[in-house]
Amino acid sequence: MSVLEPAALSSTAAIASSLNWDELASRVLDGHALTADEGLAVLNCADVELPALLAATYRVRHKYWGNLVQFYSLKNAKSGLCQEDCGYCSQSKVSSADIPKYRFNDEATLLESARVAAENKSRTFCIVAAGRGPTERELDHVVQVVQKIKSTLPLNICCCLGLLTPDQARRLADAGVDRVNHNLNTSRRFYPEICSTHTFDDRMETLRAVRDAGMELCSGGIVGMGELHDDVVDLALTLRELKVESMPVNFLHPIDGTPLAGKRDLNPRECLKVLCLFRLANPESEIRIAGGRELHLRWLQPQGLYAANSLFVSDYLTTKGQTPEDDYRMIEDLGFVITGPGPETRKAQAEAAAQCASGHSCS
Question: Against a cut of 0.90, is the pTM above it?
Fold first, then answer.
């Protein structure tokens, strides 16, 4: 991430030095809304204070989620061939990355992927399609597949299909889709630096359409694209304003052939501070460690779960992740518990977390 201007840096450093992380966590637990200055202080936390910051953040995570970990699995159902110019994406029209390119997977392929997701203990299965937005034929296909999955597997369904109209969002909701993923990716200020073929407001309109259709929101961002700390804080607070239920936090995986290839500005400690920021700014939300976790968190991956409560399991869109078995061992070593497949509601989550926090079985 880019550094702040010297004056701003000294100001936020002063705030950070005056903050007691445990006291900040207590105020958040009492209903305090994290401020932008406090968010900057979290990102500028001295490395020597990181264990204290993680311990304080874990108190917030534990209140709302206990020691539960939710797995997400995604299927890149339509790869490449996208006419948008998002600079981070290997599937965009400005990318020369060597990736598979194919039209929409057929029903049998998607049903098999959903079955594997359930076997891998995923709670949510996400169908992803590259492109500006779905055609009517593609939407019809997704609706039919979702209905089949819902009738045969105990999975929550998330769809990531690009920009949606209100009518398209309603059709997905009627089919049984629980959430729609549409990442804001960064702040409004920085967005033009990473994409010119659509705007930040275009993405906001899709999120409003999803909410109006009665579905939950899944929206997060990508850290490490050259943005300022201010942009990361602004994103975390914007997602709070939208009351986003599920937030994937990606760390840029700079793929050869994309405009951001070779950009590696992050270290594992910075990534942990970002996760703490998102948790303290959004205490009740599902915070998911998403793309780039293996590359950037490396040996500190387990510590990320003291802030986050969710992981993508196995592979991402066009990059490989670590094996499900490695994730199982990591979570077991922490003493945490994977929720596994099952219906996901606010009430069910709260009851499961309360049971886990009280020391009872949380399997």
Answer: no
